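hiii so um. not sure if this is the right channel but i have a protein structure encoded as tokens and i wanna go backwards to a sequence. like what aa goes where. can anyone help
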């Protein structure tokens, strides 16, 4: 069973919207789901790279993650 994190729930909600939502809005749901999944992958990959490099996060990492998450 998938963990019930906020991100997993959002992906599940978008899946439902794609399947059950109106045809007029389908494309926006598909794009939103694709972007959310790509964002999650990018954050996971960034964390894995830091682990492989055996280093602690610094200010530049914080800025990079903020950029990946498109917060600012």
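sure thing!! here u go:
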């Amino acid at each position: 069973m998938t963990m019930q994190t906020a991100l997993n729930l959002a992906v599940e909600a978008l899946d439902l919207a794609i399947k059950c939502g109106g045809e007029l809005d389908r494309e926006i749901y598909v794009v939103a789901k694709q972007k959310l999944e790509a964002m999650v992958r990018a954050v996971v990959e960034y964390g894995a790279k830091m682990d492989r490099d055996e280093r602690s996060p610094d200010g530049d990492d914080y800025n990079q993650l903020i950029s990946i998450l498109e917060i600012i």
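oh and The chain has one domain: 6-68.
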